[in-house]
Specification:
By secondary structure, the chain is mostly helical. The chain has a single domain (3-114), classed as Rossmann fold, CATH 3.40.50.300. Helix content is 42%, strand content 10%. It has helices at residues 3-6, 10-23, 39-52, 69-84, and strands at 58-61, 94-97, 112-114.
Length: 115
């Protein structure tokens, strides 16, 4: 193992993170620590991360639990947008458990939604 491969290239890692986030339409500064992100932003980062690793299925456990109505709308708009894209693994199923506010026509009775 050479000296170059022993060290983390933070600049290269941040540039790659920036590319991936932009590729999936996630508006987050890659220099921001995860703990400093809003819940909604963390969810977007985790979804982009899973897709970047080639996830064929994404299961979100109660993704709306800590979001307000606008945040819920943005989350599901993003999921629909990713689902409609035909490149990479975005065409894979995204399953949300206990999304009580998302699946028309009866949002109050929905226990899950698949995008």
């Amino acid at each position: 193992m050479d000296d170059e491969s022993r060290w983390i290239s933070w600049g290269r890692l941040r540039r790659r993170a920036e590319q991936l986030l932009a590729e999936y339409g996630v508006q987050v500064d890659p220099n921001t620590r995860a703990r400093d992100l809003a819940v909604e932003q963390r969810q977007f980062v985790e979804i982009a991360r899973a897709l970047s690793f080639g996830a064929r299925l994404i299961i979100l456990d109660e993704p709306t639990a800590q979001l307000d109505a606008r945040g819920i709308g943005r989350l599901f708009d993003k999921l629909r947008e990713l689902q409609s894209q035909e490149w990479r693994s975005c065409s894979s199923p995204i399953i949300c458990r206990r999304c009580t506010t998302c699946a028309p026509p009866s949002p109050s009775t929905a226990t899950h939604a698949t995008f």
